[in-house]
Amino acid sequence: MDKLAKALSKARAERAATLHHAPTQARTNPTPAELTHTSAGNVVQINETTLDINRIVAHRVRSKEADTFRILRTQVLQAMSQHGMKTLGITSPNYGDGKTTIALNLALSIALDLNQTVLLVDLDLRKPNMMEYLGLSAAVGVTDYFTHNTPIADCLIRPSFDRLSLLPAGKVMDHSSEVLGSPKIAALAEELRSRYPDRIIIYDLPPILAQDDPLVFLPHVDGVLLVVNEGVTRTNDLKASLHALTHAKVIGTVLNHSDVKRASRIEKVRRAMPLPQTIS
Ligand SMILES: Nc1ncnc2c1ncn2[C@@H]1O[C@H](COP(=O)(O)OP(=O)(O)OP(=O)(O)O)[C@@H](O)[C@H]1O
Ligand SMILES: [Mg+2]
What we know:
The protein is an alpha/beta fold. It has a domain of 190 residues: Rossmann fold, CATH 3.40.50. 41% of the residues lie in helices and 15% in strands. The protein is built from 12 helices and 9 strands. A 7-stranded parallel β-sheet has the order 5-3-6-2-7-8-9, with helices on both faces. A two-stranded parallel ribbon has the order 1-4. The longest helix has 19 residues. The structure holds adenosine-5'-triphosphate (ATP) and magnesium ion.
């Protein structure tokens, strides 16, 4: 077993302990979020070619890639249900590990489950990609709500997939961790969580080792999915990420960018992980 596999195996054991024994995360006492509308947002058509180009594949039928995300979906939903979780943050050690790609595919795959509504929130306020990957132009979002009190109902977008809603990041902001750590965003997170009790919320977060944004927002998510970039993520970075997530409930790890040539090595890692996924 190589170092990465060992680290993942160790993380698995620690995660099991964390999930069963970690105390409930302290939540910021929220003030009422300024949600003045309840409309579900505008329905926008998503272009299939754009999805293909950006590796958004979860909606495909009879597709190996989509099946992989269906497995991931089931495992994530089972873990969330088992631990009473409604909100999930997706992060990774570094930039470009595949967080947004995984977040979009996972959200889409969950929404395609007939019984489940999903809200995907882009909280990468400095470098948002969610809208671009769907071929949609920049729209008002979280930062506009924060800065100009833009009603969240005006920010929500309904793509042409049933049960999926999107909340864009909005205008790019450099002081993003101050925004994410604010009482106003805490109130927003609480409002989003409580508005529709059955809805799952997925937050696409920045990388945990590059910005403090995920750390300041973690108290508002129930669980975390850590994306690991096969062949790129260093063992030390994985360890540092898991250390940074000590007080979070990490429900699992997604091994992204897996290389078929390293299939046997990946297989060892798969067996070592509670969410055995290789996304290639
Ligand atoms: N499994 C994969 N195979 C091939 N390419 C991938 C895979 N996953 C993601 N990519 C590509 O890698 C690039 C980075 O992916 P993505 O934007 O999802 O990463 P990210 O972690 O969200 O990046 P950032 O930290 O900049 O937000 C994109 O071009 C994406 O299409
Ligand atoms: Mg991203």
